[in-house]
């Protein structure tokens, strides 16, 4: 499956002071992001689309964005944060099946930013469920290419 083979399989290099954005929607993403964050104590983490308000302190700053409800709205929220804070490099954490569409939408909103992808593996999931998720995500990706961003 060409679509699956184009998604990154491993996390690209994260720099010590990078800003990390984790897209919610799968229970694996935030714990994975927190494990990555432990490696980079100077990094900031934004949890995008969390459905809650506020910020909280852990060993570093974690900010929760709660307004976005779709991958497209996540991309808009990331764009707004990146422009407001002057970011030209961002790290995106999402599940491997979601990576292509998330990168496409975020790249469209931030064409001049360097986007570092860090996929959450789905290896703990039964093969049939993984295939189903990849198929659904492929359909959503094709719809996105036709400028259908929500719905």
UniProtKB/TrEMBL annotation:
Taxonomy, superkingdom: Bacteria
Regions that span the bilayer: none
Residue ranges of every copy of the DUF218 domain listed in the record: 56-132
InterPro entries registered for this protein in UniProt: DUF218, Rossmann-like_a/b/a_fold
Gene3D superfamilies listed in its UniProt record: HUPs (3.40.50.620)
Name used for this protein in its record: YdcF family protein
